[in-house]
Amino acid sequence: MIRGMNSSKSAAVVGSGPNGLAAAIALARAGVHVTVFEAAAQAGGCLRSEALTLPGCIHDAGAGVFPLAKASPFLRTLPLEQHGLTWIEPDVPVAHPLDDGDSVALLHDVNATASLLGEDAQRWNQWMRPLLASWPSLLQDALSPLLRIPRHPFRMARLGMDALHSARNLANHLRTTRAKALFAGLAAHAAVPLEMTASAGEGLVLAAAAHSTGWPVARGGSQSVANAMLSLLQELGAEIVLQHPVASLRDLPQADALLLDVTPRQFVSLAGDALSQSEAKVLSAVQLSPGACKVDWALSSPIPWQSELPRRAGTVHLGGSFEEIAASERDGRNAIASDRPYVLLSQPSLFDATRAPAGMHTAWGYCHVPNGSTEDFSQRIEDQVERFAPGFRNTILARHVRTATDMERWNPNLLGGDITGGAMTLKQIVLRTRHRTPIRGVYLCSSSTAPGGGVHGMCGWHAASAAAVDMGLPRLRLT
């Protein structure tokens, strides 16, 4: 139920990324007077669409595909469609080209996906069916801090039995190179080596999301998601202050709660001497993920994939085999520049005509690189596309490149180009930075907190829930 202001409580939110906006909406619905401060001229954080190449071409500068947004226990309670958001579901959520000219794909239907996997059809069904049978409630537990009793312990235990494996260990149960490659591409979204404990979890959750609610894109670009959240927030009576950088907590007005959509290291800087040396040391020690180097293209035609499935896919994973993807992710972790990087690519204009002028298309691709790298990986990224789509370079009309350090300059939350809010290692997943900080009334709500990266808003919702309890308000509920 959407409610407006009805209490004397106030909150300030620093940062207008999806988690900052989620925290602001959650508190505004509870009647808190909320003010959001954003340093940039445009709200949205990584939910921003920009004209990066040619006139009329709209590019998602940050997040562009939303596997967890429609399924999010918090976002699905919001009437975002009434505020202008339209989700578009590609025919094929994810395609994975292979070196023999064929391809495999993650389809909406679990049986249709299994039919592409030959001898591994039964195994795929064994993995997916239990997840899908309890998906909404299971996802609510999966997107909650792990150091708490889950609402559905037996369902979470079933997921954990597989998710705590390394991606390599779980893939060893597969017989075909096709199925192993498909799973590697999914698991590698976590930007950790596929030999690492719990690296299988990302692949399982993303696969189940595709079968359940899909991997949609937002009509008009990812800015549309932020704009819908901002519209709802303003309807609830909140204030949004743009071009207002915050260098210190002292710069903020008095409020009952301060919620910060920033990384722990940025929080240490904002807090200054309000933190002890030991507290600052712990917060500064959060391990970062590899960075990302991203290329946006304006194209004269659709990408000329060799096989049919990628031509119908919203997202395409490029890396060929499990072994090649595993090597690329090891390199990123070890600060080595991979010669054949695993590439995540999206081609939204195939499904959304607003993204490019008639007769043209847009696409983007990125790869994991050493954190803080200044190197331009566009040549290697394009080599990977050309490998599976001969003639691709002939379609490029313009390109825009952001290196890992450029990504941080564009959005200071992306430290060294880290787009996950910190390394998704098992230790950091379990001990993900808590929402309550050592400073009373100050909370972290960024993707550095539980449950971690992805546009789902749950980091913001959990932080808002903690703040509401501490302000003596009724406990927030996902209804």
From TrEMBL:
GO terms for molecular function: oxidoreductase activity. It comes from the Bacteria. Signal peptide: none annotated. InterPro entries: Amino_oxidase, FAD/NAD-bd_sf. Residues 20-457 form the Amine oxidase domain. Probable oxidoreductase that may play a role as regulator of mitochondrial function. Interacts with COX5B; this interaction may contribute to localize PYROXD2 to the inner face of the inner mitochondrial membrane. This is Pyridine nucleotide-disulfide oxidoreductase domain-containing protein 2. It comes from Terriglobus roseus.
